[in-house]
Amino acid sequence: MTGNSSSTKLDNATLSLFQSGNTSIIISVLYMVVTAVNLVGNGLSMWLLLFRTWPKTPSIIFMINLTLTDLALGVALPFQIAYLLQGYNWNMGTNMCSVLTIVFYTNMYCSILTMMAISIDRYLGIVRPMLFRQTRERKSIAVIGCFLMWALVLSFLWPMMTTDLTYGIPELGITTCFDVLKKDMLPSSLAWAAFIFSIFSLFLFPFFITTFCYISVILKLAKDSKTAQKKRAIRLTTMVLLVFTLCFAPSNFLLLSHAVMRIFYNKSLYMAYKLSLCFSCLNSCLDPFIYYFASKEFRRKLREIINLHSLSSMDSMKLEHMRSLFSAESAPEGQERKE
């Protein structure tokens, strides 16, 4: 995001980004890889979570919500790739630009909030097992929580939902989509600062809560000496914190830094922020690994599928071997000698 003014004169850093063909190609290739891995990994995860995983615990409900946002991103990224390969020239209309932008940022912040919710559920189940013991009640809370996440994120993104996010640049002959925000989208610098900080808070507070929950889980399991469960908890914590630090932290800290530089010092970090958004999309590729470590039922079903596939391959090989033996035994004696 950038808070450029509504005038047609852009800063050199932003113009250089639009004129850099190598940057757009690199970002496009990264998005292509992410799209392929996203659709395959999350497609399989959604099938397992919806049709092969029972019971639908709160963690499973949160994982379904996370997979849904990841798949939405996987569907939206090809449009972003086309936009980049056309030299940052958007030709699909203002409404489509708004929809894809909202999908992009909703995925990021709903993913953050959903991972926080999974960590809270594990914290309650292991550290505070007496709370929310009734499964039916916990399921209802999980479903309501998913709707509240979407409502919260969309309310924070409301200024973008009510603004034309396309921007014409006559000197380059292109129309950008969400690469240049009009300064009059919000009434004042104070409003801009509040908007950026509210977006940043959607990353910062869930990060602290998630870290606290998983560290508490590890300490509890270490005290109870449950070695196997403790190892899985450590792996899950490592994976979640990796997603936060690798995928979400760079883009959110650069967003805050860029906004401060842009609003108060008229300088830009937008090229670095644009590149950091590529890493934020990697979360949709790493989320299936979180499911694997977070859900025993998900692990079991995935292993069953892998084992069934391996067994079916072995069975087909054995069947072909038996057919060849049977053919050799039933062949005429003269023909067998001739061969």
TrEMBL record:
Annotated S-S bridges: C97-C177
PROSITE patterns cross-referenced by the UniProt entry: G_PROTEIN_RECEP_F1_1, G_PROTEIN_RECEP_F1_2
MF (Gene Ontology): thrombin-activated receptor activity
Localization terms from the record: Cell membrane
InterPro entries per the UniProt record, alphabetical: GPCR_Rhodpsn (IPR000276), GPCR_Rhodpsn_7TM (IPR017452), Protea_act_rcpt (IPR003912)
Alphabetical UniProt keywords: Cell membrane, Disulfide bond, G-protein coupled receptor, Glycoprotein, Membrane, Receptor, Transducer, Transmembrane, Transmembrane helix
Primary location: membrane
Domain of life: Eukaryota
Membrane association type: Multi-pass membrane protein
Cellular component, GO, one term: plasma membrane
Gene3D superfamilies: Rhodopsin 7-helix transmembrane proteins
Gene Ontology terms: biological process: blood coagulation; phospholipase C-activating G protein-coupled receptor signaling pathway; positive regulation of Rho protein signal transduction
Keyword Transport: no
Domain G-protein coupled receptors family 1 profile: 41-291
Listed Pfam families: 7tm_1
Transmembrane segments: 25-50, 62-86, 98-120, 141-161, 190-219, 240-265, 271-294
PANTHER family xrefs: G-PROTEIN COUPLED RECEPTOR, P2Y PURINOCEPTOR 8
Family per similarity comment: Belongs to the G-protein coupled receptor 1 family.
Protein name per its UniProtKB record: G-protein coupled receptors family 1 profile domain-containing protein
Organism: Pleuronectes platessa
